[in-house]
Amino acid sequence: MGKIATFSKPLLFQSKLLCFSLLYLFTSILLAVYFTFSATKCIFRSSPFDPIQGPLFFYPSSYGEHKHALPTTRSSCNSLFISQDYWEIFDEIEKIRRNSTEIGAPLRYMQGNNAVSFGGNLSFQKRLSYFDHLENGIEIPCGFFKRFPISTSDRISMEKCDGLVVVSAIFNDHDKIRQPKGLGSKTLDNVCFFMFVDDATLNRLHFHNMISRRSKEFKIGAWRIINVSIDQLYDDNAAMNGVIPKYLVHRLFPNSKYSIWIDAKLQLVVDPFLLVHSLVLKENVDMAISRHPFFVHTMEEAMATGRWKKWWDVNGLKIQMETYCENGLQPWNSDKPYPSDVPDSALILRKHSLATNLFSCLLFNELEAFNPRDQLPFAFVRDQMNPKLNLNMFEVEVFEQVAIEYRHNLKQGGPNVGPKTKMASSDLFVNRSCGKCEGYLLSMWGESHD
């Protein structure tokens, strides 16, 4: 009898390992091509090779740390961020920290002595005279005309922070403390996290047994808690007290080289080293801030502030905007070297350079003079100051990739802030009475938003 013919599988398919390897290879190539040519995702590598996995603090259930997270509104992204290796970035920023000459020459600041207000209460013309800073010998008004009321031990700890500092604040128990996520294994040892709070917030933390009254220093997870006696600052304006650590961070931390301000309504989910490297160092800028998701003109934000009662004194808003219009504020146009005049200032990344420090001082002076709505004087200060600020106004989609936003703590009486003055009409320019901003508005209304 003849032999029965047998058929064997080709050699290629005899190896399951080889099949799986080829499948993995082709899948990886397809994904790489997709992410390279598609703008439908923001890629921001938030986890280093050896991230911290465990929780930084165990919150009591009564505190409700993660209630009311807001969903993101955008599913696409025009910017692609792929961070370098965590250790390379860590070593680079540590090298800058050790070489203090890497950061520009410091400003000289005016000294106060029990002044009427923390910022000196300067007239507009006096404030404007410091915008053109070409002589290094001139002293700049930059707050601290009254003592910043914190303990000596806290002050010493702040002065020891000589690298990267992350700063936030909660006044009037308006937000909850949330821990940063996606941190590398060396970040907690080399990045300072400071949270400024008032007595009302501190009492709430004590109520939830998150701190002990017997301790002279407070720490919750990554955050060192700094108690501020606000009755010695702006006792009727919690928002203005929050402006001090937000814009005078270079004075509170005089030895820091970089800083990240993050509103307490946000939770940081990307390592601070990666953020500073990608948005500041890699872009070779002084400061990085997200552009506003809807507005590009300052006046749009001013009108929304009045319409939605974000600030009660609408007549004061009108005076503020007319002052800026009279002294050079122009609507945004494509000739400006910035993509917008309106930021989302909930997240600010800074290199503590001369230009950044000057901008922060000048902006703080405007906030004290008018109101703490920091988006209103932003473009005026940025465009009028000299030397110019090298600024990265990044996409809103990037902002949504690096931070999670939560709702503020709900309070009786609604969201209104500021002194309870007699409220004017919510229309900033009622009956089309444009005053000194007529030229601005005509130019803005004729401008395309495409």
Secondary-structure topology with pairs:
Elements: H1 11-14, H2 16-37, H3 86-98, E1 108-109, H4 124-128, E2 139-140, H5 152-160, E3 164-170, H6 187-190, E4 191-197, H7 199-207, E5 218-220, E6 223-227, H8 238-247, H9 249-252, E7 258-262, E8 266-268, H10 272-281, E9 287-291, H11 298-307, H12 314-326, E10 343-351, H13 354-369, H14 378-384, E11 391-394, H15 396-402, E12 403-405, H16 438-445
Parallel strand pairs: 1-2, 3-4, 3-7, 4-6, 9-11
Antiparallel strand pairs: 5-6, 7-10, 8-12, 9-10
Helix pairs in contact: 8-13, 11-12
Point out poorly predicted stretches: 31-41, 412-426
Specify the overall morphology: globular
Tally of DSSP β-strands: 12
Through-space gap between termini:
85 Å
- Strand fraction band? 5-15%
Q: Order of strands in the sheet with the most strands? A: 5-6-4-3-7-10-9-11
Helical stretch tally: 16
* Main sheet attributes: strand count, strand direction, barrel closure: 8 strands, mixed
Mean pLDDT: 84
Radius of gyration over alpha carbons? Answer: 26 Å
InterPro entries: TOD1_MUCI70, TOD1_MUCI70_glycTrfase_dom
Keywords: Membrane, Transmembrane, Transmembrane helix
Organism: Rehmannia glutinosa
Domain TOD1/MUCI70 glycosyltransferase-like: 113-408
